[in-house]
Design a protein that fits this description.
This is Lipoprotein. The chain has 10 helices and no strands. It is mostly helical. It has one domain. Helix 5 crosses helix 9, helix 5 packs across helix 10 and helix 6 packs across helix 9. The relative contact order is 0.14.
C-alpha cells in the first residue's frame, strides 16, 4: 500500500469507525464531555482485536434496543461506537437519536453542496477503486473487529455498510483542488473548516 493511500485509509477509518474523530469540538453538545487525548491514545495504542470486538458487540446490543430503520440505524451504531471510544459522558437515548439524526442530515448536506455548488459527481467505479486501493487492504484491528461484529467480511463492510462514508472521501479528493483555488490555501485543516462552514450555512 502506498504512503498516500495508507494516510487516506487511516483518516477514512476514523470516519467509518470513530466518526467523532473528524467532527469539530464545536459540533458536540455542551453537555457531552470527551475523554482526554491521553485516554483516547491509550485505546488506540493498547486495544487488541478482541478488545475492539467486545466493544462493537456491546454497541450492536445497544443499537438493537432502538426502534429505528435504516439508514438511521447505521448512524445510531456509529454514535454508540463514538460514545464508547471518545465520550466520558453517558449519552441518553434522546441524545443518541439527536446526534445520529444530525450526523445523517449533515452527511446528506455535505454531499449536496459538493454536487450543487461545485458540480462534483463521483461514479460507483470511482468509489470502488478508492475502497479497493485503501480500506480493502486494511489489517487494523479496529477495522477487522468492526466487520466481524457486524457479521460482515471486510469487503462487505467497506463496499456496502460504510460505502456512504467512502463516497464522501472520494468526493473530498475531487473537492480539494477546487477548494485550494477558491480559498488560496493548501492547508487541509483550513479547507475542511471552510467547507464545513458552507455545509453548516446550508443547514441553518
Amino acid at each position: 500500500m502506498t504512503a498516500r493511500f495508507k494516510s487516506l485509509l487511516l483518516c477514512t477509518l476514523s470516519l467509518a469507525i470513530f466518526t467523532a474523530a473528524c467532527q469539530s469540538a464545536a459540533s458536540q453538545p455542551e453537555t457531552i464531555e470527551m475523554k482526554s487525548e491521553e485516554e483516547q491514545r491509550q485505546i488506540v495504542d493498547n486495544f487488541t482485536f478482541d478488545d475492539y470486538k467486545k466493544l462493537f458487540d456491546d454497541v450492536l446490543v445497544e443499537a438493537n434496543q432502538f426502534d429505528v430503520e435504516e439508514p438511521l440505524r447505521k448512524w445510531v451504531i456509529r454514535t454508540l461506537a463514538e460514545e464508547k471510544l471518545y465520550y466520558e459522558t453517558d449519552l441518553t437515548d434522546a441524545q443518541v437519536i439527536a446526534l445520529s439524526t444530525e450526523a445523517m442530515e449533515q452527511d446528506v448536506s455535505w454531499k449536496t453542496v459538493a454536487r450543487e455548488t461545485y458540480n462534483i459527481h463521483v461514479t460507483e467505479d470511482e468509489i470502488d477503486r478508492f475502497i479497493q486501493q485503501g480500506p480493502d487492504q486494511s489489517d487494523l484491528p479496529n477495522h477487522l473487529a468492526y466487520a466481524s461484529a457486524l457479521g460482515l467480511s471486510l469487503q462487505e463492510l467497506n463496499h456496502q455498510f460504510d460505502r456512504d462514508l467512502y463516497e464522501k472521501n472520494t468526493i473530498w479528493l475531487r473537492l480539494i483542488p477546487v477548494l485550494e483555488k477558491k480559498y488560496g490555501t493548501t492547508d487541509n485543516n483550513k479547507l475542511v473548516e471552510r467547507y464545513e462552514a458552507e455545509v453548516n450555512a446550508r443547514l441553518d
